[in-house]
Design brief:
236 residues, mainly alpha, Arc Repressor Mutant, subunit A, Four Helix Bundle (Hemerythrin (Met), subunit A), 2 domains, two-stranded antiparallel sheet, 69% helix, elongated
């Protein structure tokens, strides 16, 4: 399975947050109760004067957090939770956009140390193929001194998928675009001269531990791989 990392510009994120806020305001204005149905994507896109794809993305984000639920052939409904909880959760979602990069990196470390252990335990042969393909793509870029940040994150997303935990996988998909956007800006894990072999070795050792289904070794190798990130997050 091919994994793709989609980067978003800041104005796109602001646009998504604006649509989420409008959906919240609509729910409050119409006094919608649990199990009440929202208008169709087309109607919401016309009402908010945005594209249907943007409305769909906002709905998917709210579905992930349990605010809405979509039923095929029926529509999108308010989940069975109270209005106070809905407003509180949406406020938290909107604040995610202001997370500082250091916090995102710290979250990534915490998630991935658990993820790689699960991947080593649960990985399938299909997962191994996907992780290996991502590793090969990363190595091909590194040996030619090309920018391999995107390939690196695709490698980690493949591990997240192999964990077999859909929530962890979704969390990685949420924080990855922001990390990808800001990686070079903050010069995290900046490339050093002649370190291509070491960088490939680190990734390969994580992969080998997953193949061997050794969760403790996989966690240790991931910690070693994240050494520079640890220093960035915890040195101050």
């Amino acid at each position: 399975m091919k994994l793709e990392v989609i980067t978003r510009k800041d104005n796109n994120k602001e646009s998504l947050n604006a649509i989420i806020a409008k959906i919240r305001d609509y729910i409050n204005y119409k006094n919608l109760e649990p199990e009440d149905k929202l208008p169709s994507e087309r109607m919401l896109s016309e009402k908010f004067e945005v594209s249907r794809s943007s409305v769909r993305e906002a709905i998917q984000r709210l579905e992930f957090y349990g605010i809405l639920k979509s039923i095929p052939q029926s529509g999108t409904f308010v989940a069975n939770i109270g209005k106070i909880a809905i407003n509180g959760i949406i406020d938290d979602i909107l604040r995610l956009g202001t997370s500082d990069f250091k916090s995102l990196v710290e979250t990534r470390i915490l998630i991935e140390l658990k993820t790689v252990r699960l991947a080593a335990t649960r990985r399938t042969e299909e997962d191994i193929v996907c992780i290996k393909a991502a590793l090969d793509a990363y190595a091909a870029k590194v040996v030619t001194t090309e920018d391999a940040v995107q390939e690196d994150l695709i490698f980690h997303l493949a591990i997240a998928k192999a964990s077999g935990n859909s929530t962890i996988n979704n969390l990685m998909l949420i924080i990855t675009p922001e990390i990808l956007t800001n990686f070079e800006k903050f010069h995290v894990c900046a490339k050093k001269e002649n370190d291509a072999e070491d960088r490939i070795k680190e990734h390969t050792e994580v992969f080998d531990a997953i193949v061997a289904q050794n969760p403790q070794l996989a966690k240790q190798k991931m910690k070693e791989h994240f050494k520079a990130l640890y220093e960035y997050c915890y040195s101050s």
